[in-house]
Amino acid sequence: MLNYNSKPLLFALVFIHSLFSSSQGQLLVGFYSQTCPTAESIVHSVVDENFKRDPGNPAVLLRLQFHDCFVKGCDGSILINNGAEGERGARGNLGVGGYEIIEEAKKMLESVCPGVVSCADIVALAARDAVSLVNGQFYEVPTGRRDGRVSSKSLAANLPDVDDSIQLLKSRFQQKGLSDRDLVLLSGGAHTIGLTACFFMQKRLYNFTPSGGSDPSIDPGFLRELKANCPFNGDPNVKIPLDPVTEFKFDDQVFVNIKNGFAVIASDARLYDDNNTRQILESYIGSGQNFLADFAKAMVKMGKIGVKTGSQGEIRRVCSNVN
Ligand code: HEM
After folding, report:
1. Ligand 1 in reach of 66 Cβ (< 6 A)
2. Residue 43: pLDDT above 90?
3. Can you say whether residue 40 is alpha, beta or left, with left for phi > 0 and alpha for psi between -120 and 50 degrees?
């Protein structure tokens, strides 16, 4: 119990707590409105330009944020280019790209407001702009993330894997504070755009666990098509759309595909294996704006995983290297 004599202790505790809170800081919408008012518009223009160059770029940028946030939090660590032992070299990060787009935005930002805008925030803003460019919903991104200084392959060992069971996928998301709903929205939902390499299809098509052969959840006609596009021992780098019906449009078509046996990658098909994720998935079919709005909310939530703020981390000068 506290008595008169413990007052100094109480003050000390309050002081330490306030120090701790200020070094923690928090994310805020419009964090750069005073320090770099053009930050968001610069990122937007770079994403827009790159979309015009290649309509596949929004998908690349959206995936990049997921891979950033799931390893050591949304701290831009995946952007660090530190060789084969770095985060980028992990199996789970194979095919991740968009690094040069983030670097392009960073370069422009450094020329206008040097040392102000973090690479981690550029990743989050670029993903938002990417989604809204392909028919998704625009959403406000709380900013103020700081950049991490650590990138290591071993830290990326627990990324969700395409061949994980639904139980494992759910628990990997739970470990990041994300619910079953977030899993459906973010993993299934995001795969409404973009491509997968045949590399990620091998087990599903030719060596499915536990029965061998192919995943029985695949529609037979679609299985023939997938096998023709990704033959056994064929080129693992050939890419096919994750949503073959509306490849460049952010919509709920991917959920229709999954329901009907037209999921392309195994982890999307697994969302139908579990009562809860199946019900969530079905609730978004035909829900239009509802799916887009909930996806946006889930992105904001994912964007808060393990962020560094206040005096933690740093603001990198270039995104590919720590200061
Ligand atoms: C259960 C978790 C997830 C798994 C197992 C998974 C797996 C995959 C795989 C295997 C690919 C193909 C990659 C390639 O061939 O380069 C892919 C692509 C993609 N993923 Fe995921 N993913 C998951 C969650 C997410 C999340 C949370 C997002 C974003 C919010 C996301 C966005 C994307 C996008 C947009 C692509 C297409 C990338 C492109 O066209 O280059 N994924 N994912």
Report:
1. yes
2. yes
3. alpha
Among all residues, which ones are annotated catalytic?
A: 67
What type of residue sits at position 133? L
Distance CA 198, CA 39 (A): 37
Q: Is 191 in the pocket of ligand 1 (CB under 6 A)?
A: yes
Of the candidates 23, 125, 111, 107, the one whose C-alpha atom is nearest the C-alpha of residue 68 is: 125
Whether the predicted model's global pTM rises above the 0.90 cut: yes
Q: To test ligand 1's pocket by mutation, which of 54, 66, 74, 271 has the most ligand atoms within 8 angstroms of CB?
A: 66
Q: Which domains does the chain have, with CATH numbers?
A: 28-156 (1.10.520.10), 166-302 (1.10.420.10)
Selection from 183, 127, 132 nearest residue 293 by Cα? 132
Residue with tokens 């803003």: 125
Q: Ligand 1 atom 26: the closest Cα is on which residue?
A: 187
